[in-house]
Amino acid sequence: MSPHTTSSPRFLDTWSPDRTHWLELPAHRSSVSVARRSVSARLTAWRLPGELCADAVLLVSELATNAVRHALGTRFLCGVGLVTDGFLRLEVHDHDRTERGLPRRDPAPDDEGGRGLFLVEQLAEVWGVDRSSSPAVTRCGRI
């Protein structure tokens, strides 16, 4: 696996390299943990509150998991940026251009999966949601 940091300011609404972090990864299950650790390390370096970091890492984890499990692309891109001192923006781009949506799931209590989009939806209600100019899943939140 060869993750690498990339600069892609056309997606995030901030241009400062000190306030953005991008990571492009192969669409493999092991890449999800790499994305989690990388985003967590960046948010910690920015000295953001622990609860915010935990929510952001959960969002990245769920969105990256969906990019790996359900998209047809071979790579995905994770971005995090401090848009202003009051706003954090997370983006996951899966490079799947079929524009097919994920089916809505109603998992049973004993099911091990199927709750990811529900978690993303719940956190997005608290954080707020904004679409980037590119066809990708985007979440934006107030710190």
Q: Briefly, what is this?
A:
The protein has three helices and five strands, in the order E-E-H-H-E-E-H-E.
Description:
There is one protein chain. This protein has about 140 residues and is of the alpha+beta class. The protein contains three helices and five strands. A five-stranded antiparallel beta sheet has the order 1-2-3-4-5. Helix 1 (about 30-45) runs antiparallel to helix 2 and helix 2 (about 50-70) crosses helix 3. The protein starts with a strand and ends with a strand. The relative contact order is 0.19.
The end-to-end distance, rounded to whole angstroms, is: 33 Å
Shape: globular
* Order of neighbouring strands in the sheet with most strands: 1-2-3-4-5
Give the % helix.
25-40%
- The SS-based structural class is alpha+beta
Q: How many strand units?
A: 5
Largest sheet features: 5 strands, antiparallel
Order of helices and strands: EEHHEEHE
- Enumerate the spans where pLDDT stays under 50 for 5 or more consecutive residues: 1-9, 134-143
Strand content: 15-25%
Mean pLDDT: 75
Number of helical segments with 4 or more residues: 3
Radius of gyration: 14 Å
Which labels suit this protein?
alpha+beta; 5-stranded antiparallel sheet; disordered C terminus; 35% helix; globular
Topology of this structure?
Layout (H helix, E strand, L loop, with lengths): L3 E2 L14 E7 L2 H17 L4 H21 L4 E10 L2 E7 L22 H12 L9 E6 L1
Antiparallel strand pairs: 1-2, 2-3, 3-4, 4-5
